[in-house]
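chain below, 117 aa
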Amino acid sequence: MMPPFDRDELRANIGHDAEMERMLLEMFVASVEAALHQLREQLPAVPDDGFDRLWKTQMHQVKGAALNIGAGRLKDLAAEGQDAYRADAAFKGALLLRMDEAFAELKIFIHADGGSR
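prediction:
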């Protein structure tokens, strides 16, 4: 099974700077946690154009953050969500559960290595 993100690629992209890696991963975790929390809290029971725009924006942000650290599964899920921003609440809720699972796995992987070597 592939790791949740490509730590070697991230390290190569930042010149193997352990402090930069730690800071980037901390910012990544905080920003994705905030985005997913906001979407979960505001998920409407009925269609809402304002929420659809928020959803699309947050999915784009998560996709970019995941791409920056090489978190392929989370990036793919966020891209799916961004493309389906007009989907119903049931689809969005199910996708958020899948994203929560991928994000939890990713955080375990990040912390298992101490965030950096």
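The mean pLDDT is 91. The helical segments are 7-13, 18-42, 49-69, 72-83, 89-112.
thats it, cya
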